[in-house]
Amino acid sequence: MLTNNNVYRLLSVQIPYFWDAIKFGCVQADEVLEVDMPLYLNELLQALLSDKAQCFVILDNERILQGITITRIVADKIFSKKELLLQTFYSLKVVTDDETQKYFKILYDLAVKEKCTAITFSSRNTKIWEMAKLVGCKELNRNFAFELGGN
Q1: What is the distance between the terminal CA atoms of the chain, rounded to a whole angstrom?
Q2: What range defines the domain where residue 90 resides?
Q3: 49: domain CATH number?
Q4: Deepest of 17, 73, 89, 136, by most Cβ within 10 A of its Cβ?
């Protein structure tokens, strides 16, 4: 289904055709350790095939894959709100400011359609931070971890 210019939201039946690219982009963007890949990819595939997660692909004019975004509608049961969680954003090329704004508008429209109260995501990538500021996002918190060792 065409959503805007060369950005497409995949139907669940289209996921198998893009699965290798989705796996690659998500593992790279989400920095999944090899030991965690089977569980991570199994859950992701189940979510995409059952429409619990949404996949958007960006194709250039020659229909060559340029980027992948995975989103999920997450319910906050305590406050009775829904949020659009941007799980993954992976691009095979540098994304311009204009493209950032165009892609964010597509996600914004999805969030409004789904009656979400916010679009949320986390990232360690400074380029993603810059993109977030460009479209008007504000930083809500920072996560910290003290590694205990082992697996």
Answers
A1: 41
A2: 2-134
A3: 3.40.630.30
A4: 89
Q: Assess if residue 116 is contained within a domain.
A: yes
Q: Tell which residue, 82, 81, 90, has the closest CA to residue 128.
A: 90
Q: For the beta carbon of residue 144, count every other beta carbon within 10 angstroms.
A: 5
User: Is position 113 within any domain?
Assistant: yes
Could you tell me which residues are beta bridge partners of residue 67?
58, 91
CB 11 within 8 A of CB 1: yes
Here the contacts of 145-150 (C-beta below 8 Å, separation 24 or greater) are: none
**For the whole model, what pTM was predicted?**
0.84
Interhelix angle 97-113/126-134, rounded to 10 degrees, is 70
The Cα–Cα gap between 99 and 89 comes to 13
> Is 149 inside any structural domain?
no
Place of tokens 């799980």: 87
d(CA 32, CA 72): 18
